[in-house]
């Protein structure tokens, strides 16, 4: 039977789970997975329920559920089992793109990569070897506005549900961040907060760090301060020179980003203020 996923958050009160499960049973749905989190600090409940249901359309079911949502002041989303379409943006470093492509071809990414966009030509062979469109969009101080206009066009053209900045080394404007809010994931080369600016692993080496890591987060107008989805950390010691730290860091970046993309595509990430609730 067709598969659906319902996610919601609302003020905490009695009867929410009963209302959701009763609605699904009354509509002939079979619950296959249910997860919830009660945030006692904020007084909110977060819920993710995956279920199967035959003979209904997504819009029809969402319209019926809206009556329940109104009663409990719920913000909810209902998705069918269509894999979200992903637009990946890169610059010159290819380790995150390579990892995403491997997981996509192995069926473990959760989404469908639609195209690769870059401000450089370096990774065209990798994209085309995977059978994907590669779109070169130069982005300089003089062309930034035009580049972002083109990005919005590409999001529409490829019907992208998610944009992934897989080491795309350009800062998105505030306007673009607002337009694509909740739909852009970035990988940062630090276990935030961490070393900012150029050569972070050289900075880490100079400071004699014992851990290196990476942070996957949603992009907001506040640079590198968006809601965090996933972080990966690795133990290092004095024997790691900048080259070894860079190699370890690349592994952490690829792993944190791929997890964040998969969880987003499987509708497991719910925003909670400046943070997230992740149903793994």
Automatic annotation (TrEMBL):
It catalyses: (6R)-10-formyltetrahydrofolate + H2O = (6S)-5,6,7,8-tetrahydrofolate + formate + H(+). CDD domains: ACT_F4HF-DF, FMT_core_Formyl-FH4-Hydrolase_C. Pathway: Purine metabolism; IMP biosynthesis via de novo pathway; formate from 10-formyl-5,6,7,8-tetrahydrofolate: step 1/1. The active site is at 224. Residues 85-261 form the Formyl transferase N-terminal domain. It is an enzyme of class 3 (hydrolase). Its EC number is 3.5.1.10. One of its GO terms (molecular function) is formyltetrahydrofolate deformylase activity. Keywords: Hydrolase, One-carbon metabolism, Purine biosynthesis. The keyword Hydrolase applies. The keyword Glycoprotein does not apply. Catalyzes the hydrolysis of 10-formyltetrahydrofolate (formyl-FH4) to formate and tetrahydrofolate (FH4). Belongs to the PurU family. PANTHER family: FORMYLTETRAHYDROFOLATE DEFORMYLASE (PTHR42706), FORMYLTETRAHYDROFOLATE DEFORMYLASE 2, MITOCHONDRIAL (PTHR42706:SF1). This is Formyltetrahydrofolate deformylase. The gene is purU.
């Amino acid at each position: 039977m067709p598969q659906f996923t319902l996610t919601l958050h609302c003020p905490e009160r009695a009867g929410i789970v009963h209302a959701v499960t009763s609605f699904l049973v009354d509509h002939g749905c079979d619950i296959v997975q249910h997860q919830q989190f009660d945030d006692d600090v904020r007084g909110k409940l977060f819920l993710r329920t995956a279920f199967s249901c035959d003979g209904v359309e997504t819009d029809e079911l969402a319209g019926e559920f809206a009556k329940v949502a109104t009663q409990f002041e719920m913000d909810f989303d209902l998705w069918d089992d269509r894999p979200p379409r992903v637009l990946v943006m890169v610059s010159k470093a290819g380790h995150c793109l390579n990892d995403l492509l491997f997981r996509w071809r192995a069926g473990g990414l959760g989404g469908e990569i639609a195209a690769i966009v870059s401000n450089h030509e370096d990774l065209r062979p990798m994209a085309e070897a995977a059978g994907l469109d590669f779109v070169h969009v130069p982005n300089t101080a003089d062309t930034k506005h035009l580049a972002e206009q083109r990005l919005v066009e590409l999001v529409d053209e490829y019907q992208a549900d998610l944009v992934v900045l897989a080491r795309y080394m350009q800062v998105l404007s505030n306007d673009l961040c607002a337009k694509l809010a909740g739909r852009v994931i970035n990988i940062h080369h630090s276990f935030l907060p961490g070393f900012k600016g150029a050569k972070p692993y050289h900075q880490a080496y100079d400071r004699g760090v014992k851990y290196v890591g990476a942070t996957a987060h949603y992009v907001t107008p506040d640079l590198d301060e968006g809601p965090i989805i996933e972080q990966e950390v690795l133990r290092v010691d004095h024997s790691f020179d900048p080259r070894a730290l860079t190699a370890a860091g690349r592994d952490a970046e690829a792993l944190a980003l791929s997890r964040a993309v998969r969880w987003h595509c499987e509708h497991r990430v719910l925003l909670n203020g400046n943070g997230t609730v992740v149903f793994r």
